[in-house]
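Quick one:
INPUT:
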């Protein structure tokens, strides 16, 4: 039996973050969850992370972290996730508050104490950048960083995706940290959609967790269906950062040089991916995840929900 990948999920739940937590708890050795301000203010993302863990019966700790980006002014994504960050379902009260308010310390201590941890940031990269800056040894201790963010197009602007746009200076630190880096950007995450058939499959599973997740995904899908041509459900972005580690056979991935645009008037927060076909390419710093076999990947999500139902 191969051992499970150890990971810390750093998140801002967020409808798709909730799905990522569920699948990480099912298929990885999840060591803890850290939270960051992003889709909603920090108090809401922390509360939401606890609720999701409670719904799957997990006692894993939730440590809250940065309540704002390093430099950029704070912006949430309430236009997509609602005011609470998890609008659309009747959620239970969380069983407890955060286990600490020091996510950065938790990340550093856990990665120093345990060999080969993957950091899986699926919100703005503030906590991860602060950890790398405070503990430069972390870069060579962790197995790597698998993040959701970036891509060849944006969703906040034509060029920039929300997680990297929300804290570009933090993203710049992460993309230059020098260790293994995997990026699941919008190119791949828009392929993993919560279509009506998939939503119905979740709703058909008896229990509180599937019911809540189906309500959440139905709410989340509305804004995607309303705003996009050719989308029949929301892009379930964040699980891609987990699944590309736990189920790499479902993805196509290639190494590239990726830099974060910090100054462009129209491009701040953009991932500049070097795709030139040179015989001597620029040294890659990032494994870019391009495509997913969406049906089997979504089946993994459905099975994870059934498992905890
Ligand atoms: C990313 O932004 C958030 O709204 C989602 O949770 C995801 O992490 C997609 O751009
Ligand atoms: Ca997120």
């Amino acid at each position: 039996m191969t051992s499970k990948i150890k990971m810390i999920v750093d998140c801002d739940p967020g409808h798709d973050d909730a799905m990522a937590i569920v699948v990480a708890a099912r298929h990885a050795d999840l060591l803890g969850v850290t939270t960051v301000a992003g889709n909603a203010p920090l108090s809401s993302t922390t509360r939401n992370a606890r609720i999701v863990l409670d719904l799957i019966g997990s006692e894993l700790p939730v440590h809250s972290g940065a309540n704002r980006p390093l430099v950029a002014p704070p912006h949430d994504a309430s236009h997509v996730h609602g005011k609470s960050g998890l609008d659309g379902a009747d959620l239970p009260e969380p069983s407890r508050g955060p286990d600490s308010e020091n996510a950065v310390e938790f990340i550093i201590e856990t990665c120093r104490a345990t060999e080969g941890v993957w950091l899986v940031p699926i919100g703005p990269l503030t906590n991860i950048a602060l950890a790398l800056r405070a503990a430069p040894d972390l870069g060579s201790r962790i197995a790597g960083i698998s993040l959701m963010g970036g891509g060849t197009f944006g969703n906040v602007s034509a060029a920039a995706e929300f997680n990297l746009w929300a804290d570009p200076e933090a993203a710049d630190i992460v993309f230059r940290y020098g260790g293994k880096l995997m990026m699941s950007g919008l190119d791949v995450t828009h392929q993993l959609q919560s279509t009506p058939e998939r939503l119905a499959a979740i709703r058909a599973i008896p229990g509180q967790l599937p019911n809540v997740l189906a309500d959440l995904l139905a709410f989340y899908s509305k804004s995607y269906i309303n705003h996009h041509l050719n989308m029949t459900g929301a892009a379930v972005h964040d699980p891609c950062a987990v699944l590309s580690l736990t189920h790499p056979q479902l993805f196509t991935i290639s190494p590239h040089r990726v830099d974060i645009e910090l100054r462009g008037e129209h491009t701040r927060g953009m991932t500049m991916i070097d795709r030139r076909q040179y015989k001597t390419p620029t040294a890659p710093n990032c494994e870019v995840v391009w495509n997913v076999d969406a049906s089997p990947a979504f089946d993994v999500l459905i099975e994870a929900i059934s498992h905890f139902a």
